[in-house]
Amino acid sequence: THTCIHAPKRSYVSLQITLKKHCVFHYRFSVAERVLYIPSIGFCVLVVELCSQVRWTRPYRRIALCCVLALMCARCVARNEDWRTPEALHTAGYTTSFPHSGFAANLAGELMAQNRTEEAERILVEAKQFTKLESEKVYGNLGIIYQNQGRWAEAEHALVTAIHIRPAFVNGRQSLAALYLQTGRYKEAYAQASEAVHLTKGGHKALHLLFEACAGLGDWQAACDVLGKHTERNPAPQNLAALANCSAHLGHYPKAAELLAVSSLSTYTHTHT
After folding, report:
1. CB of 190 within 8 A of CB of 217?
2. 244, pLDDT greater than 90
3. Which of the 8 DSSP states describes residue 34?
4. Alpha-carbon distance 223 to 119, whole Å?
5. How far is the C-alpha of 239 from the C-alpha of 247, rounded, in Å?
6. Is 135 helix (H, G, I), strand (E, B) or coil?
7. pLDDT value at position 167?
8. What's the pLDDT at 10?
9. Are the beta carbons of 136 and 165 closer than 8 angstroms?
10. What's the whole-number mean pLDDT along residues 147-172?
11. Of 21, 123, 127, 264, which sees the most CB atoms within 10 A?
């Protein structure tokens, strides 16, 4: 009878945890609390069922239960400390799951936001050396670090590797397009920016990079078309000024003057509001 009662709960727990342990599908993140909420329902029901079968008349059993509950509460409080800041959370994940590339990339990203690039580079290089599962984020963050340091060849190699791992890695393509723009390789920049525009379905950053590539190639008509789409979604003063510049290169001086006037008005409005 007890087996029949507990069998559905055991099956529920086993099935849910199996789905979250990469046995059926490969998830691009490690198991964490957020994916164990649903499996914990069956586990809690099972524990309650087992506890209901125990006679709690003897004092030592009550004491043992209180000790277990106190231990679980202490572990919960200790774990909450890891969630106080993003750096603490990513550090805890990185130290307990080393050399998991996902945690390394997240921690490095947080350090990069704090301009602690040397620490971030060390963590990413370690993750790249010791993990078997390659992560596009590891190489992508490394590429950004090298790019900011002017190490163009290393940055290009890292970003190309990131895109090879995951061709739909938008941030990698946008970073690579920006690198090509910085080094004057406008054809390569155009190719990467075009792919980023396709992947983002016309994202602001991708469109701006594509405009820069077209302008670098001297194709002002294409640059004007791209920037026109970008300005429709984001009519910022700098976009209007850039569109006026494109129109002037095409000889459309009345339109350029009109756009500059609108840009100046927008700048004045933003400054005094």
Report:
1. yes
2. no
3. G
4. 39
5. 12
6. coil
7. 92
8. 57
9. yes
10. 92
11. 127
Q: Which two tokens stand for residue 116?
A: 């602690």
Q: Which H or E run contains 230?
A: helix 220-233
Does residue 99 have a cis peptide bond before it, meaning omega lies within 30 degrees of 0?
yes
Contact 226, 194 (CB under 8 A): no
Rg (CA), the chain: 27
Helix residue ranges per DSSP H, the chain = 2-20, 37-52, 59-82, 86-97, 101-113, 117-130, 136-148, 152-165, 170-182, 186-200, 204-217, 220-233, 237-249, 253-271
Q: How many CB atoms lie within 10 A of CB 201?
A: 7
Q: Is the dihedral of CA 30, 33, 38, 44 positive or negative?
A: positive
Residue 8's pLDDT is what?
59
Q: What average pLDDT does the structure give for the chain?
A: 79
Say what the pTM is. Answer: 0.65
In angstroms, the Cα distances linking 140 to 154, 156, 184, 244 are 11, 10, 21, 34
Answer left, alpha or beta for residue 58, where phi above 0 means left and psi between -120 and 50 means alpha. Answer: beta
pLDDT tens-place string over residues 160-204 = 999 998 999 999 999 999 999 999 999 999 999 999 988 988 788
Listing DSSP states for 187-225 in one string gives: HHHHHHHHHHHHHHTS-HHHHHHHHHHHHHHT-HHHHHH
Residue 33's SS3 state is: helix
Residue 68 backbone dihedrals phi, psi, to 5 degrees: -65, -45
